[in-house]
Specification:
Strand 6 and strand 7 form a beta hairpin. Helix 3 runs antiparallel to helix 4 and helix 6 packs parallel to helix 14. This protein has 14 helices and 20 strands. It is 18% helix and 11% strand.
């Protein structure tokens, strides 16, 4: 989730201009423990695994955990024999915040979805009104979005904030997504409960999913299926049906976890020395319900709370989340004393470049600069090259120009919270490190000129990142297709590359999968994860438990790097799974994998521990 205030007042087609490439330095792949010398990590936005892959049927010999395999829906998208497993329930009134909330009954039918902040030019409807493209009497469970609007159509945006997401999964029952949308939505923003009642204007858009199989839409027209490029990648390469967002909540916190393996915290805004401090009072979360209301948080929302002192058991919401950990045998919250961690979205301190720091203050909603180590610091220290390509970087009106030319962006918007390294002293105070923050034009040049670094992070253009309301999964597929084609066109590069495709978080969409409580911050729901590589297992569905920090573990193992910090999740062991019973839940939790099981190499072997070794004799995982 992002702050959408003042964004995209209209959608207008941009004119085509040529990229301005950043500086090009010779790439240095470094010695690797596998044949993979280049890793490209592409992070789109805001879809769960079931939202996109809920009806995917894997290749013969493979199994999968999704809506279809569980009988929650049928191949044609209609309710299946076990539809009731996904029934959404109404939470009971509580005095204090509860991550696991008692139920007062079930919905008879789903509340009609709203348009939320989707542009009228894209939907044909005003913002924040009932989305009349969908029926008002949808059955209580997952519904196929593309029965009613095309796969490429823009839709509303579900809530996806920290305390809300803990309530969504409701201790593993996954039955409070709609109730959270109806009672608190994206937050109170510190405002008192309205005298006439509160309507977040979301409805039940969270229960929507897409269908990869042929189906007949509501008008009676036969459709070939949705997300067919994602389907083709899954058929040809390897996917995970047990990969998760690392942090409950939205975009910013998960992008930060993707580079630190942990969560960011509020630092002293006066000294600017990276030391922990107490945030402005209005920026501290309080998810306890206002007296006399059903789940209307006291202080939450972009303008009303995003920091939590999770080391304090008496802080609002902390005890309930901690209880979820202890129920799962996890007794370490991973919270330093008197640190207030950012669990939702605030701007990074530097706006694109080191000459543009953001103002700090109680009304600025900016994360003060961070001194915590990142995967970028680890790679630099060991001589492993890297770059972070934010496609919208720069103040021009750059458009999407790839091998499929002539596809313009409907708008140009730089996503600061999707550019997490701009928040760190070690990057922004070092000209040589800051120079590694580039745009998509630089990426294309590096691919073409064989100057791609060992590790590349690629943030798609906002318009093509797949975020509901301002993008679509169809547009994210277009971005991926052209990028993959560009990499494959350089056969020398393709022969030693792994392209990792995921989303930052689930966007608040329903998912039926298991979620492992790892520490106070998450994990969150399952999200799509695909490995495109000559070394990916063909048509393989991996059930190993992963989250975003698994990407960091893979980088560390592939280049024999140390772990990031004393608190980063890359210290967690690889999971041990029961191969016959519950293969999705680690027996040694908390545990997350290093992605190696998605690949096959010439010297690959299985030593019987459930973790394939791909290290050319360098020894087992640390």
């Amino acid at each position: 989730m992002k702050n959408h205030t003042g964004r995209y007042k209209s959608l207008c087609l941009a004119t085509t201009v040529i990229f301005t490439a950043g500086s090009i330095a010779p790439a240095f792949a470094g010695a690797t423990t596998t044949p993979i010398e280049h890793v490209i990590v592409i992070v789109g936005e805001n879809h769960t695994f079931d939202n996109l892959f809920g009806t995917y049927k894997p290749k013969a010999g493979q199994t999968i955990d999704n809506l279809l395999s569980k009988g929650i829906v049928n191949e044609d998208g209609t309710p299946g024999p076990h539809f009731k497993k996904a029934e959404q329930r109404i939470g009971r009134d509580e005095v204090h915040y509860n991550a696991e909330t008692a139920s007062a009954g079930a919905y008879a039918t789903l509340p009609q979805p709203y348009t939320t902040w989707a542009s009228p030019l894209a939907t044909g409807l005003p913002q924040n009104v009932l989305d009349t493209r969908f029926p008002a009497n949808l059955p209580n469970g997952p519904f196929q979005i593309s029965k009613y609007v095309p796969y490429a159509a823009y839709t509303g945006d579900p809530v996806h904030r920290f305390f809300q997401m803990w309530q969504d999964i409701d201790g593993g029952k996954n039955d409070k997504f709609v109730w959270v949308e109806e009672t608190i939505g994206t937050g109170s923003n510190g405002a008192p409960f309205p005298a006439g009642g509160f309507n977040p204007m979301e409805g039940a858009i969270s229960m929507g999913f897409y269908n990869m199989n042929p189906f007949t839409d509501a008008s009676g027209k036969a459709q070939p299926g949705d997300a067919l490029f994602f389907k083709s990648l899954a058929d040809q390469y390897a996917i995970s049906d047990n990969y998760h967002q690392a942090i409950m909540g939205g975009t910013g916190a998960n992008f930060l976890a993707l580079v630190t393996g942990h969560a960011a915290f509020f630092t002293n805004p006066d000294k600017l020395d990276g030391s922990a401090a107490v945030p402005y009072a209005n920026q501290i979360e309080n998810p306890d319900p206002v007296s006399g209301t059903n789940n209307y948080y006291k202080q939450d929302g972009y303008g009303g709370g995003s920091y939590v002192n999770c080391s304090d058991p008496n802080a609002p919401g902390v005890a309930s989340v901690t209880e979820q950990l202890s129920k799962n045998g996890v007794y370490h919250r991973n919270c330093a004393p008197n640190h207030y961690y950012l669990v939702n979205n605030y701007n990074m301190y530097w706006n694109q470049n080191s000459s543009s720091p953001m103002a700090l203050g109680s009304d600025k909603f900016t994360l003060p600069p961070q001194s915590a180590p990142t995967i970028a610091d680890v790679m630099t220290a060991k001589g492993i090259s890297w770059k972070y390509y934010n496609s919208d970087r720069g103040n021009d009106t750059t458009v999407f120009k790839t091998s499929v030319d002539g596809v313009p962006l409907p708008f140009h918007f730089y996503c600061g919270i999707c550019d997490p390294l701009t928040g760190f002293f070690s990057i922004m105070k070092s000209p040589s490190e800051e120079a590694k923050l580039q745009n998509y034009g630089a990426f294309l040049n590096d691919v073409q000129n064989n100057t791609l670094p060992a590790v590349s992070f690629v943030r798609p253009f906002e318009a093509l990142a797949g975020h509901p309301a301002d993008s679509t999964s169809d547009l994210y597929e277009l971005f991926l297709k052209t990028l993959i084609n560009r990499v494959k066109a350089n056969t020398q590069l393709w022969a030693k590359t792994a392209i990792i495709i995921t989303t930052d978080e689930g966007g608040g969409y329903y998912d039926s999968g298991y979620v492992q409580p790892v520490d106070f911050f998450g994990d969150g729901t399952r999200i799509p994860f695909i490995v495109v590589s000559p070394f990916a297992k063909t048509g393989y569905v991996d059930h190993t438990y992963y989250d975003h920090v698994s990407v960091l573990k893979f980088i560390e193992r592939n280049w024999n790097l140390p772990q990031i910090s004393a608190v980063s999740r890359d210290h967690l062991p690889n999971p041990i799974h029961d191969r016959d019973d519950n293969r999705y839940v680690p027996l040694n939790r908390p545990a997350i994998g290093d992605l190696m099981n998605l690949f096959t190499f010439a010297e690959d072997h299985d030593d019987g521990d459930g973790d394939h070794d791909h290290d050319r004799g360098r020894g087992r995982d640390r």
